[in-house]
Amino acid sequence: MQTIEKILSVENISKKYISETNTVVALKNVSFDLFAGEMLSVMGTSGSGKSTLLHVLGALDAPDGGVIRLKGVIQDNIFNEPAASVYRSNTVGFVFQNYNLLKDLTVEENIALPLILQGMEHSVRVKEMLETVGLMKWKKHRPIQLSGGQQQRVAIARALITTPPIVLADEPTGNLDYNTSIEILKFLTLAKDKMKQSIILVTHDPMVAAYADRVLFFHDGEIVDNYACSPFENNTNRIIDKFKSLLEKK
């Protein structure tokens, strides 16, 4: 039996935000694994720690405790510069709700940017990504000339162009209508299935979460439930039921 590679291990990650008047526990001993070619969805109520988790995994914020392993190797210096920038450049692709494209660059320039910053030849890879996301005709356009769905496809291509071990997607369909959301989810599924890309997807939408292989449910900084999606189940309804139970805890 073939063993699936464990890309990421998160072990007892904790994070507090302390001010003069208040202490917020954002993450409380969070542990989980992410496997090669897996899409893992993270759902939770507002303020449950989802965004903090992505910030920690992207080395944008340092945890107070815990261990992150990448392919079995402890990442013990990724929260200090310049190691943090190297980690983000080599390890993580980001997809945001608001696309975060550079308005003065063309589609192909936005997609090529991660390779350009690494000083790597990029023309062949950019062409491959343009064809993958169906934007070859629009390669000379700037973001303002594109629809929201097209802009998100550019953002996905940019995140995938270096073939990072992990893609972190923060509400990638949050600004899109239903049909465009389905289109974006199909591209992420294609990346997972064909490119063996490992993806952590934060969403509040059960329909979006149902495209994942597994769903983790967050509440008050902890993983309180999980669900393995199955082709034989109505995954969306099962996820809705579990999410409703979180809302009842508020």
UniProtKB/TrEMBL annotation:
GO molecular function, one term: ATP hydrolysis activity
Gene Ontology terms: cellular component: membrane protein complex; plasma membrane
Domain (ABC transporter) ranges: 8-245
Keywords: ATP-binding, Nucleotide-binding, Transport
Domain of life: Bacteria
Family annotation (CDD domains): ABC_MJ0796_LolCDE_FtsE
One Pfam family from the record: ABC_tran
PANTHER family linked to this entry: ABC TRANSPORTER RELATED, IMPORT ATP-BINDING PROTEIN
Name of the featured protein: ABC transporter ATP-binding protein
Species for this entry: Cohnella endophytica
